[in-house]
Amino acid sequence: MAGGTTARRGTPFSDRSGPAARKGTGAPKPPKPPKGPKAPKAPKPAQRSGPQGPGARLRRGPVLASLAAAVVLAAGGTWVLYGSSWLRVEKVAATGMDVLTSEQVLGAAAVPVGAPLVSVDTEEIEGRVRGRLPRIDSVDVVRAWPHGIGLKVTERKPVLLIKKDANFVEVDATGVRFDTVPKAPGGVPVLELNAGRSPSARRFDEERLLHEAVLVAGALPGPIAKETVQVKVGSYDSVVLELTGGRSVTWGSGEHSDAKGRALNALLKAAPKAAHFDVSVPTAPAASGS
After folding, report:
1. 28, 95, 211, 234: which has the fewest C-beta neighbours closer than 10 Å?
2. What's the rounded Cα separation, in Å, for the pair 278 and 213?
3. Distance separating alpha carbons of residues 252 and 261, to the nearest angstrom
4. Digit-coded pLDDT (tens) for 202-243
């Protein structure tokens, strides 16, 4: 056909510039980078169990109630011990005396009657009693709930007497001069000190000789002590005992006094009619006279 365009038969019309025409014919796409490992998920925050957690309000109530109850109990206990009239000193008793009277001990103790029992200073009372009454060797002060204070007293026991004018000074087994009495107690020997002319007088003074006499008197068995009238000290190593019935004992020094006491006890049993005994050497005691 003139002036027109003639299409070729059997050749379909196609637009090679479209997307379908470009598929598979253009430049290849770059490969995708490999996927890395997945990041771990952050852990969920733990649920609080403290005061801000669930149920805190429910638990807070019993705790506060317990604290309040403890405060009330402590305050009540303090009031009972210190403020109430239930646990106060009403009775004070003393036991264990042989020479002293209860009135003397209680007067020296000066326990504050009416004071709260828990506030009583037992050590202070013990010190006060021993300071005011030298005859007392020890005292144990105890609380006797709910209203009492008890004093258990142990008195010193004299083993020797020192003549002083018309009186007698009592000396215990440790050498403590604890009391002066107008009358000599029975069964306690009297010291007779005659060391003025002794050659050892300059070396052994009166206190040292008194110490030796106390060692001897304290070592005497009970029955022998009651029969001992005097302890005569002429020097450090010259101690003589005067017994009832005109009997005498050469003791020597104060050394080995326990052994000498046992030896004298055996001699008195073996020779009850003897007038003189010698235990200055306790391994070889002797008895003589009749």
Report:
1. 28
2. 17
3. 12
4. 566 788 889 899 999 999 999 999 999 999 999 988 999 999
Q: Is the dihedral of CA 254, 255, 256, 260 positive or negative?
A: negative
Instruction: Give the Cα separation of 273 and 243 in Å (integer).
Output: 13
Cα gap 159→169, rounded to integer Å: 11
Tokens linked to 152: 């258990």
Question: How far is Cα 15 from Cα 18, in angstroms, rounded to an integer?
Answer: 6
Give the span between the Cα atoms of 228 and 249, in whole angstroms: 10
Task: Provide the CB-side half-sphere exposure for 199 (13 A, CA).
Answer: 1
Distance CA 87, CA 85 (A): 6
pLDDT of 7: 39
Three-state secondary structure string covering 166-215 = CEEEEECCCCCEEEEECCCCCCCCEEEECCCCCCCCCCCCHHHHHHHHHH
Distance (Å, whole) CA 88 – CA 114: 5
pLDDT, tens digit (0-9, with 9 covering 90-100), for 44-88: 555 554 455 555 555 665 655 556 555 555 544 454 444 455 679
Over residues 103-112, mean pLDDT:
96
Residue 194 and residue 217 in contact, taking contact as beta carbons nearer than 8 Å: no
Helix axes 122-132, 102-109, angle to 10 degrees: 120
> What are the structure tokens assigned to 239, written together?
């101690």
